[in-house]
Design a protein that fits this description.
Layout lengths: L9 H5 L3 E3 H8 L3 H9 L6 E3 L2 E5 H8 L8 H5 L2 H9 L3 H13 L4 H21 L5 H22 L8 E6 L7 H12 L3 E4 L6 H10 L3 E7 L5 H14 L4 E5 L6 H6 L4 E2 L6 H10 L4 H4 L2
Parallel strand pairs: 4-5, 4-6, 6-7, 7-8
Antiparallel strand pairs: 1-3, 2-3
This protein binds cobalamin.
The site of cobalamin has 38 residues, from helix 8, helix 9, helix 10, strand 6 and strand 7.
C-alpha cells in the first residue's frame, strides 16, 4: 500500500502544490510506471484526490533531497564503456566498484539493471552473433555478471508487506539462468517474494514447487531460445497442479502478446521497467485471458 502523508485531508492538500504521477515522472526523468511502482511500494508518499494519485511537493522533495545529484539515466549509462571493459577483462572488483559508485551517488539499484546490466548483456549477445566477440569472452563476462547480479540482489528487495509469491525459472532445454535471476530481482523490487528455479527447469519441477510455495500467485517462465514445446509442457503441468495461478512468459524467444497467448500463457512483457507491473496486472485480473479465449 502506498505510504500516506501525515496530513492527507483534501483541504490540506488543496493548499499545497500537488503533482500528478505523470508530472513527477517528467520532473525526475523516469518512466511513469517507475513512479507508480514507487507509490505502490510505499517509496513515495501519495494520496488519491478525485480518483487520481497526487504527490505533495514536500513529499517529492523529501524523497529526492537525500540523493541530490542522484545520477539519472544518462549519468549511469555514461559508465557503460568502463563497465563493459571491466567485465570483458573478467575484473569483478572493478565492475562492482562502478555499480557501487552509482549506488553511493544515490542511484536506484533497479536502474543499474535497466541502464548498465541489460544493455551490456544485449550487446555481448549481438557481438557474439556477429562474430566480433569470442564465445569464451561471452562465457567469461556472463560468469562475472552472475556474481554482480547476486551482489546487487539483496538491495533489490522492498520493505513492507509482500504482494505474494512468484515462482520463476528458465524452461527445460534453456541454459540461460541470468534472465530469470534478473527478472526475479525486478519482481522482488516490485514487492513480491520470488523463488527462482534457475536454468533448464523440468515441467514437473514447476508443478511440484507451486504446490509448496506459500501464497503463490503466479509463475514466470523464461525462454531465451525457441523452446515452445517446453513452455507448453510447463504450462500444462502448472495448470494441472493449480488452475488458479497466472502464468507470464518472457525472454528473447517470445515474439509478443499473441505468441504468449498461443502458448497458453496469461501475459508477457519484455520491457524491464514494466515487468513487475505486468505481473500486478495479470494477478489482479479476475479472469485468465488464456481461459477466457476458450
Ligand atoms: C549470457 C548469455 C549466455 C550465457 C548464459 C549464462 C547464464 N548463466 O545465463 C551462455 C554463454 C552460457 C549462453 C549460452 C548459449 N546461448 Co546465450 N546468450 C546470452 C546473452 C548474451 C545474455 C542473456 C541474458 O542474460 N540477458 C539478460 C536478460 C535479462 O535479457 P533478456 O533475456 O533479453 O530478457 C528481457 C526480456 O526478454 C524479459 N524476460 C526474460 N525472461 C523473462 C521471463 C518472464 C517471466 C518475463 C515476464 C520477462 C522475461 O526480461 C528481460 C528484461 O528486458 C544473450 C543475448 C541477449 N540478447 O540477451 C544470448 C542469447 C540468448 N544466447 C543465444 C544462444 C544461441 C546461446 C547458445 C545456443 C549458443 C552460445 N551462445 O553459446 C547457448 C545456449 C545453450 C542452451 N542449451 O540454452 C541466443 C539465442 C537466440 C535464440 N533465440 O535462439 C542469444 C539471443 C544471442 C544471440 N544474439 O543470438 N548464453
Amino acid at each position: 500500500m502506498p505510504m500516506e502523508s501525515p496530513d492527507n485531508s483534501d483541504a490540506a492538500l488543496l493548499e499545497e502544490k500537488l503533482f500528478s504521477l505523470a508530472e513527477v515522472a517528467a520532473k525526475q526523468g523516469v518512466h511513469y510506471m517507475t513512479v507508480y511502482r514507487h507509490v505502490r511500494t510505499g517509496k513515495l508518499a501519495a494520496t488519491k484526490l478525485n480518483g487520481e494519485w497526487q504527490v505533495r511537493e514536500c513529499d517529492l522533495i523529501a524523497r529526492t533531497a537525500p540523493s541530490q545529484g542522484k545520477p539519472g539515466s544518462a549519468d549511469i549509462s555514461a559508465r557503460s564503456a568502463a563497465f563493459r571493459n571491466r567485465l570483458l577483462a573478467s575484473d569483478e572488483p572493478g565492475a562492482w566498484s562502478i555499480l557501487e559508485n552509482c549506488l553511493a551517488a544515490g542511484a536506484d539499484p533497479a536502474d543499474l539493471h535497466h541502464e548498465l546490466i541489460l544493455p551490456f548483456l544485449h550487446r555481448i549477445g549481438t557481438d557474439w552473433a556477429s562474430g566480433t566477440l569470442a564465445v569464451s569472452s561471452e562465457h567469461t563476462a556472463s560468469a562475472v555478471m552472475q556474481r554482480l547480479v547476486a551482489r546487487l540482489g539483496p538491495l533489490m528487495r522492498t520493505k513492507g508487506r509482500s504482494r505474494g509469491s512468484i515462482v520463476i525459472g528458465a524452461v527445460a532445454g534453456d541454459a540461460h539462468s541470468l534472465p530469470a535471476a534478473i527478472v526475479a530481482d525486478l519482481l522482488r523490487n516490485g514487492g513480491y517474494d520470488v523463488l527462482d528455479l534457475g536454468a533448464n527447469t523440468p515441467a514437473r519441477s514447476f508443478a511440484e514447487t507451486v504446490a509448496l510455495v506459500d501464497r503463490c500467485k503466479a509463475v514466470g517462465l523464461s525462454a531465451s531460445r525457441s523452446l515452445d514445446a517446453s513452455i507448453r509442457e510447463a504450462i500444462e503441468a502448472i495448470r494441472l497442479a493449480d488452475s488458479t495461478l497466472k502464468i507470464v512468459v518472457g525472454g528473447c524467444s517470445i515474439q509478443g502478446a499473441e505468441h504468449a497467448k498461443s502458448l497458453g500463457a496469461d501475459g508477457t512483457e519484455s520491457d524491464s521497467r514494466l515487468i513487475a507491473a505486468a505481473f500486478d496486472e495479470v494477478i489482479d485480473s479476475q479472469v485468465s485471458p488464456a481461459v477466457a479465449q476458450q
